[in-house]
């Protein structure tokens, strides 16, 4: 289907001209083919009126655990390691593949409602997450979470699972699915096992998605065990020899930051989750000023407790000003970049998504700014970072297909998903 979005303000995320006040966007199939004045020579099947609306690239949630929506609001106000070991991991051990399927569907619905068109997920039963991704019409990078166990055969099986996931799903669903390798963290995988993970990533010619330096405790234990920080440890093992998405990077030193820059690692900032779990605040402004590609994520819906990327953008653009006593830290446009083009670069997808340009895939969200909290329309870039709410997302287009219009999702039965998640979550918690 060919689409025209007419008379719309456009935040393209292009360096030379990020914002156009009034323009028209033509989409043929899954691709943006023309931006500018109305072109009568281009035939379209549908016209979307963009008057008093902003079109922007779909948001990219670069680190999450979608299946954890079943555990939302289950274990809160608990320190991270207690949260994991005493509450989350015991329940996760009882999760079934169908639980993860329905939980992931719910998370995808929530993301679409709030303008996210692409995610990077780390969890298990990832074939079910892939199935949900295909059905909903969203775009995703899937990584099977790998935690080393005492049984060598189980550890080999986890690597085989990843290879099978890659061979089955990479570039499938009209190209909307990619697969990377997902070692959980340097404290849950030994150096020798991480080296096997790296070899698998090289074999598959894909990237690595891993948690790095999330807490002070993690860093302290790394120095006790390895005599170096997690960042230095991962570099020395060779993890950073392949493209790496490094979730969190909260407790990183100046030396660590230089390594991240040198090795072209993409840290993912998760401000709400890091704050709620009392992990601390990543030195985002410092990393950005070093030219490091910092992306943005929500983390899982059990630690956040939502998947609202506009909330993360707002937090990223405000809290760093207070932390640095600098009103210029992480400006509005920089926060929006973290949630769009920087995320695309982290996911090795920036040639196709992350900005609205001719030749790129049509992953576009349309924001309704005809609401009291948007008036007056002084600065639309500031408005998207400091004013916009998830509920302002009116239309979501992914790969050229209208997935949501007038806040109605067209690809999935939302009521059915909510019913099934509620039922399964109550049964799951009851198993304790």
UniProtKB/TrEMBL annotation:
<feature type="binding site">
    <location>
        <position position="184"/>
    </location>
    <ligand>
        <name>substrate</name>
    </ligand>
</feature>
<keyword id="KW-0479">Metal-binding</keyword>
<keyword id="KW-0378">Hydrolase</keyword>
<dbReference type="GO" id="GO:0050270">
    <property type="term" value="F:S-adenosylhomocysteine deaminase activity"/>
</dbReference>
<dbReference type="Pfam" id="PF01979">
    <property type="entry name" value="Amidohydro_1"/>
</dbReference>
<comment type="similarity">
    <text>Belongs to the metallo-dependent hydrolases superfamily. MTA/SAH deaminase family.</text>
</comment>
<feature type="binding site">
    <location>
        <position position="299"/>
    </location>
    <ligand>
        <name>substrate</name>
    </ligand>
</feature>
<protein>
    <recommendedName>
        <fullName>5-methylthioadenosine/S-adenosylhomocysteine deaminase</fullName>
        <ecNumber>3.5.4.28</ecNumber>
        <ecNumber>3.5.4.31</ecNumber>
    </recommendedName>
</protein>
<feature type="domain" description="Amidohydrolase-related">
    <location>
        <begin position="54"/>
        <end position="403"/>
    </location>
</feature>
<feature type="binding site">
    <location>
        <position position="144"/>
    </location>
    <ligand>
        <name>substrate</name>
    </ligand>
</feature>
<dbReference type="InterPro" id="IPR023512">
    <property type="entry name" value="Deaminase_MtaD/DadD"/>
</dbReference>
<feature type="binding site">
    <location>
        <position position="211"/>
    </location>
    <ligand>
        <name>Zn(2+)</name>
    </ligand>
</feature>
<feature type="binding site">
    <location>
        <position position="65"/>
    </location>
    <ligand>
        <name>Zn(2+)</name>
    </ligand>
</feature>
<dbReference type="InterPro" id="IPR032466">
    <property type="entry name" value="Metal_Hydrolase"/>
</dbReference>
<comment type="function">
    <text>Catalyzes the deamination of 5-methylthioadenosine and S-adenosyl-L-homocysteine into 5-methylthioinosine and S-inosyl-L-homocysteine, respectively. Is also able to deaminate adenosine.</text>
</comment>
<dbReference type="GO" id="GO:0046872">
    <property type="term" value="F:metal ion binding"/>
</dbReference>
<feature type="binding site">
    <location>
        <position position="92"/>
    </location>
    <ligand>
        <name>substrate</name>
    </ligand>
</feature>
<feature type="binding site">
    <location>
        <position position="63"/>
    </location>
    <ligand>
        <name>Zn(2+)</name>
    </ligand>
</feature>
<keyword id="KW-0862">Zinc</keyword>
<dbReference type="GO" id="GO:0090614">
    <property type="term" value="F:5'-methylthioadenosine deaminase activity"/>
</dbReference>
<dbReference type="InterPro" id="IPR050287">
    <property type="entry name" value="MTA/SAH_deaminase"/>
</dbReference>
<feature type="binding site">
    <location>
        <position position="214"/>
    </location>
    <ligand>
        <name>substrate</name>
    </ligand>
</feature>
<feature type="binding site">
    <location>
        <position position="299"/>
    </location>
    <ligand>
        <name>Zn(2+)</name>
    </ligand>
</feature>
<dbReference type="InterPro" id="IPR006680">
    <property type="entry name" value="Amidohydro-rel"/>
</dbReference>
<dbReference type="InterPro" id="IPR011059">
    <property type="entry name" value="Metal-dep_hydrolase_composite"/>
</dbReference>
